[in-house]
Input
Amino acid sequence: MSTSTLTQSLGAPVTRLDGHAKVTGAAQYAYEYPVEGVVYVFPAVSTIARGRVTAVDAAAVLSRPGVLAVLDHTNAPRLKPGVDADLMVLQSPEVSYRGQIVAGVVATSLEAARRAAEALPISYEQEPHDVLLRDDDTVYTPETVNGMLPATFEVGDPDTALAAADVLVDARYTTPAEHAMPMEPHATLAVWDEERLTLYDSNQGPFAYGQLIAALFGIDASAVEVVAEYVGGGFGSKVLPRPSAVLAVQAARVVQRPVKIAMTRQQMFSLVTYRTPTIQRVRLGADREGRLTVVVHDSLSQSSRLKEYTENSTADAKLLYAAPNIRTVSRLSRLDVPTPGFFRAPGRTPGTFALESAMDELAYELGIDPVELRLRNEPTVDPGTGLEFSSRNLAACLREGAARFGWQHRDRAPRSRRDGRWLVGTGMASATHPVYIRASTAVARAEADGTFVVRVGATDIGTGARTAMAQVAADALGVPLERLRLEIGRASLGMAALAGGSMGTASWSWAVDKACRALVDKLGAYAGAVPEGGLEARADTAEDLEKQEALSRHAYGAQFVQLRVDTDTGEIRVDRMLGVFTAGRILNPRTARSQLVGAMTMGLSMALLEIGEPDPLFGDVVNHDLAGYHYAANADVPAIEAHWLEERDDRLNPVGGKGIGELGIVGTAAAVTNAFHHATGVRVRDLPLRIESARQALRRAPGENASALVR
Output
């Protein structure tokens, strides 16, 4: 058998390898695995936002047909404390948020379990609660942002620079809670076999997931298999186990049978992590030529009483633009709410809305084109770290995007273009996302029949990662895709990075490429003849990552939007969205375009539609279903374009890819609201920009700043 280096599939628009299995129903998702003797658990959730459970009347439902058990804090299996406070399901009577799991009913059918759980009498001792984010005396600055970065950062003398700035913009921006609703809800099938546990689960990283579940239940990680071969979306909400999965494992241990659970959409608003609301203040100082002298970004977000999670919304204030004086502060308010968490481009999505809106405001105050202002503030090194960039082509994205969009024909004056009763405007914003690469392992195997198998503990959550990794393997082996089989989605396949933070494909492809090239070297010793038992090579990139030089590694983009506003009704219609990006080597243009367009559309949802409305009286999310929580659909964007520039970065990984899953959402919301200002002459700094806020804005005089300080 021989391999050929002439084979090249990387960079080709290969159709998704799993496409046929998905559209024909052959792909098995977590809830669909056939297991003998399966039963169902349905959670009973708290109807108060703070307090304690005083009684659970299990006897009232245990006599119902099909009901096998009722779990509550008095009889549920004990968990190891100190692993994750969010996952300490049924370990105490304390209630920390409305919708928290306070009991679970196990039954032989889903319907029986649900009816019994909804009828289960539960008594509470209620305490006063608070679910509204505001900047008051309970707010504090944590030591770190989620244990990774300092919560405060400062270079230079920002206060002196603010006082001395020729032009100053000082504005407050807010973003609401936003909820991830992947097509496949969070689902788990838990199967115990004595002390071994198998979880068929919808998640974004089976290896890390299994490690956490093992620690929680006090068993060896090698005794936990997690299967996530097909996952119907995640957006960050499936990075960590959720309480529903823990309940399924507990229930399976109690009844000694396989147990299934799938969250309802309503339950996902409380049991799934979400993007926290933010209150942000951005201050930009510049000289008359438009060069920034100071950037100060303060962000306030919320977390639960259970766990400290801080949204890193100020990250790009110390990266995107050159300024000698920078200060960022991340502050936190602990409320009686579920714990927020990762949601597509966490921190950067709300943070760039504020920063890029402020940059647009500064451009107008200076009388400088918004694209030109950004070009004048291009840094030569990372402003926050002083590190050299591995590559940085934001300026090229800005120029190419402006040319493709026809930006040069734009009248800079707001409210200068009409189409009947519609005001028409255009806006833009910069985008960036860090390149995260984490250690991963892979195995490449040659079979005697001339085929190859590559195994990696990755998860394809719908991005096309399975196809891209197969392309990497085929090129490294020098064989066509038809001779290759890729196995993913199991914890037992070894350590692998999460499918989150845009790190997945960039991390896995390194391990896959390394394993395949090692196999080719081994085959050379056999003159291409594979031994009867096959031949394999293993790879681990941990040492390779340790040897990498310290550089600032990021992907970049520029977002452009045209919209129109009905002066009678306040209706907003987006006519066109265009993004130009640089993200290293694009492994598969078909799946890459899908990711970028999808992310841009999600950014449009953030700008115009998405908001989880908190109920201060009951502590719930008022619109906790898809009838009341709205997303953008195809009809909301008549024309959407995603382009990228060729970029070679040899200081990333052997494949040269940066990751693109989150880049497309960053900056989109700011481009939309900046276009609204250009159309109407009025600034709106609070998302989402809905019809009612547009109508209020239109009643203000053009040019009215509404709460911003401009000097």
Remarks:
- The chain has three domains: 33-128+181-271, 144-177+275-435+550-710, 440-540.
